[in-house]
Amino acid sequence: MKTIVLIGAGKSATVLIEYLIAQSAANKWKFIIADANKELVLQKTNNSAFAEAVELDVTNDKQRGQLIQRAHIVISMMPPALHFLIAKDCVEYRKHLLTASYLDEKIKSLQDEINHRKLLFICELGLDPGIDHMSAMHIINNIKDKGGKITSFKSHCGGLIAPESDDNPWHYKISWNPRNIVLAGHSGAIYKLDNEIKKIEYTDLFNGANAIEYKGLNDFAYYANRDSLSYIPTYKLADAATFMRTTIRHKDFFSGWNAVVHAGLTNDIDQVDTNGLLLSKWAAPVLPFVNSDNKVMLQFLGLFNDEPVPASAKTSADILQFLLETKLKMQPADKDMIIMLHEFEYELKGKTNQLKSCLIVKGEDGNRTAMAKTVGLPLGITAKLILNETIKLKGLHIPIIKDIYKPVLAELENAGVQFIETKS
User: Fold this and answer.
1) What is the CATH class of 131-362?
2) What is the pLDDT of residues 347-367, one digit of tens each?
3) pTM of the model
4) Domain spans of the chain?
C-alpha cells in the first residue's frame, strides 16, 4: 500500500489534510499525519478512518526515522530550519520529499545523493514560492514559444484579509506563520529595474507604498521581496530590463509597519529584560515615528498601553508577535484573501505588448483559509501525481518544469485556483 507521510499540521495544512484524506480514500493509500500535538491532528482529520495521527518530536532521530521509513512520499510542513533533518532521513531511507519552503543550501548539499538514489525532491511548492513559479513559467514559456521576448516581469503576491472581514486599521489579519510576518523583509531586497540593480535596506523597505495598478485592487500596494536577482537565471530572463518579486499589503499598512521597523521592535537577536517591563516602555522607541497616518494603527496594537509584556518573551520580536497574534487574530467567521498578480511586458512581431495575470482566492472561514488552500493544494496534488506516476521526474527541483507545473496548474484550476489574463 502506498503511504503518504505529512509532518506538521499547522495553520497552512488544513486543506492539504482534507485533500489527502479524500485521495487516500479514493486510491486506497495510507495517510499518516505527524505533529507534536496529536490532538490537533485528530481535530483536523475529524477522526477519519483514512488518516492515522502520530505524535512526533521531529528532533528525535529515532522517532523521525521510524516514521519516514513507513512512507513512499514525505511532505514537510515544518519550519524551514527543520526540513534538513527530514531531508537527510528521506535520502537515507530512499523516500521522495515535498516542501513549500525556499530551496536552501543545506538541501542543495544533498543533490548528488538525491540523484544517485533516483529520488524526487521538490521544494518551493506552496503559494509564494510555488504557484507563483508555476503560473509565471507557464506564461513565460508560452510567450517564448511564439517567438516573443520578455522585457519586464513583476510578480506580486500577498496573504490578506478579505474586504468583508476587514475591521481593523491595519487592514490585515494573520492567516499564516506569525513569526514570518514579524521578520518579513529583514534581509532587505534586491531587484532589477530598467536595467539598474536596486538594493533596498530593511529600514527603507516600507518607506513608501508602491501602488498596484489593476482594476479592483486600488487599495493595495507592494514592497520588494528578498533577492529577486537569484530567480533571473531560474526563469531564464537575463535580457529582461526589469525583474522584481514583491509582497502585497493594504496601502495603509506601510506607514504603521515602517514605524515599527524603524523603532527596532522586530529585533529578534537582542535579549530583553521583561521583569516589570510595560508595553509602553518597551515600545517607547516608536514615539518619534508616530504620525497622523499611523497613530491609530499603533494604538490598536497596544503599543502605548501600561500593561506588562508577556513574561515568556525573550526578544522584541517575541513581544511584537504576541501583540500581532492577539490583536490581528482571525476570528472563526473571518475570510482571508490571496492576491497574486504577474505583470509582463514583451515584444512580439515588432509590437510591444502587456499581459497581466491575476489570481484572487478567498477563504471559507478562519480555518479553511485561502492561505491553507493555496499553500496546501499544490503539495497534495503533486504528491498524488507522483504516486500515480503522472510525474516521473527524479532529482532536486523547484516547480519550473513543464512536467510539474502543467498537470498541477490544471488540477488547481479545477479546484478554483484560477488566473485571469488581460492583454493590452
Assistant:
1) alpha beta
2) 999 999 999 999 999 999 988
3) 0.92
4) 3-128+371-417, 131-362
